[in-house]
Amino acid sequence: MRVLAALLVSSPLLAQAVSVGLRAGIPITPMLTADGRRQASAARYTIGPLIEVQVWHGAGFGADFLLHHADLAIPPAGSRRAGVWRWEVPITFIYRFGAPTRPFVRTGVSLNRVFDIGGATECARGTFGEQFYCLEGSPLAELRHRGTSGFVVGGGLRFKFKKLQLEPEVRLTRWIDRNFGVRHSAVRSNLSQIGLLVGVVF
Q: Three-class SS of residue 9?
């Protein structure tokens, strides 16, 4: 009976501590860099759902599920183009300071995974499981790590707008490994990722 009463009392409190919403933004640094005969262009958007749990005063934990997209091409343009899709899940500790605009900082870890390389075909495999992709028979890129992890830091402000809360933020992610290539590869992932994001919390 006491357990049931405790659950009934705590349920509204738990409901108030959990927030969900949508996060979108633009990358400042591209997901991929290409040299020589290859070209890389990043989609000018990042988007995905978010969830945040407040655990004590201004402290809490948050997680996002963000989608990133980039194109790889071998000139001349046309059908010689591949689309790279990668999801990213940053899990961070958040601390919010006092009113009125409630500045906040975050830090934590992030996981990513390349889940689709559309338009290209796998044409070879390396000794350690590396996957080599080609476009119409021409070598395009080496996928060394389909998934990797990294560290996240960021900060921003939270504004209340009617029933919504808006969170503009600058975020830096430093990946441990590259998904594509190595330092001097013709196509390589960037280890440092900077983005401008806006969260809409319901």
A: helix
Burial of 182 (0-12, 13-18, 19+ CB in 10 A): exposed
Q: What is the pLDDT of residues 90-139, one digit of tens each?
A: 999 999 998 767 899 999 999 999 999 999 999 999 999 999 999 988 99
% helix, strand, coil for the chain, step of 5:
10, 65, 30
Which amino acid does the sequence have at 63? A
What torsion do the CA atoms of 24, 29, 35, 40 make, to the nearest 10 degrees? 10
Q: Dihedrals φ, ψ of 78, to 5°?
A: 145, -130
Residue with tokens 């996981």: 111
DSSP H or E stretch at residue 4: helix 2-17
β-strand partners of 180: 143
Asked whether 177 and 144 are in contact (CB, 8 A), the reply is: yes
